[in-house]
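Researcher: Go.
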Amino acid sequence: MKYIFSMLFTISCLSINAQTQQEAWFTDQSEATAYASEHDDDILMVFAGSDWCRPCIQFKKDILEATDFKQFADGNIVILYLDFPSKKKNKLSNEATKHNEGLADKYNRSGTFPKVVLLDKAMNKIKDLNYEGQSSEDFISMMK
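Model: Structure:
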């Protein structure tokens, strides 16, 4: 019985640890910058159309959700994911829409999707990153 309890406790701890690695993914600028400042991380700001932009969907799947990218991101960058969905069922709140549009006015005036911008923890642009279907490994190399 002790063995089973010990195993369940270990699995629970691993699950909690896996969840904390996902905490560096934000949709709110103030939360992202606070986390980045606290952990001395840069911010990867992603402008995406999650339900209409095929390259955005690919970027999320092939880069942001890739194991090697998650490992790189953990302790290095904070992701600020700004979605611009078009379908009514995926509509954001008015507050979230205004938030995302405000950041787009400053960092994505051209309305490019996906648009990926690397920022320091104070939201100063380091550089724009072009996603052209490259692998997560190539994208990480470009970020470095």
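Model: The chain is about 50% helix and 20% strand.
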